[in-house]
Write a structure and sequence with these properties.
about 180 residues; Leucine Aminopeptidase, subunit E, domain 1; binds ligand AR6; alpha/beta; 7 strands; globular; single chain; about 40% helix
Length: about 180
């Protein structure tokens, strides 16, 4: 599924984010950038040692990546030139989780703009090991992305890359409902 928000194509695809050739892919990271499980592990394995190495150097230099913010490393052997490590919240049923998830998406897109990138792909942050319900998470992430793209941005293509058909279907339903509710 694809739609256009101002000057940016917003796309939903099902698949493995490590295969994408956008300028950057976003990782669903933890504050320590210790890429041990989930999509982080897949990105780190496929990108090779530079990903964990540059991540460790980042944390050593700046301290942990606070939840709701993001850091950037090179893409190592990936097709993407950069990996943007966004830290989503561990789901705790409070409104604070939604704030932090929206903030993680915004931070990732802002960092892509800071690096003057044109395309970026994001996974469904926090909806795996961190336990965020996919339907609620999709609402928050898509809302944050569309709101961001209505502001000033150099991004021309933003992709949500969803792992598995059920998650993809929920994102399609959610985006369709959001576009119906708020006319462009
Ligand atoms: N491509 C796209 N999406 C994927 C892929 C892939 N190759 N693999 C998994 N997903 P998770 P979190 C989906 O658990 O919940 C790590 O250990 C997955 O189905 O990767 O933010 C980190 O280091 C789910 O929809 O991230 C942190 O400690 C989504 O990616 C912690 O997990 C996110 O699932 C972060 O947990």
């Amino acid at each position: 599924m694809q739609t256009t928000i101002e000057q940016t194509i917003l796309e939903l695809v099902e698949g493995d984010i490590t295969e994408l050739d956008t300028d950057a892919i976003v990782n669903a990271a933890n504050e320590w950038l210790a890429h041990g499980g989930g999509v982080a592990r897949a990105i780190s394995r496929k990108g090779g040692p530079p990903i964990q190495g540059e991540s460790d150097a980042w944390v050593q230099r700046h301290g942990p990546v606070r939840t709701g913010t993001a850091a950037i490393t090179s893409g190592g052997n990936l097709r993407a030139r950069y990996v943007i490590h966004a830290v989503g919240p561990v789901y705790d049923r409070t409104p604070r989780s939604a704030e932090l998830l929206g903030s993680a998406v915004r931070a990732a897109l802002e960092l892509a703009d800071t690096y003057e990138l044109r395309s970026v792909a994001l996974p469904a942050i926090s909806t795996g090991i961190y336990g965020y319900p996919v339907r609620d998470g999709a609402q928050v992430m898509l809302h944050a992305a569309t709101a961001y793209l209505r502001g000033e941005t150099g991004l021309r293509r933003v992709v949500f890359c969803l792992y598995g058909r059920p998650t993809f279907d929920v994102f399609v339903e959610t985006l369709t409902a959001q576009l119906d509710a708020e006319p462009r």
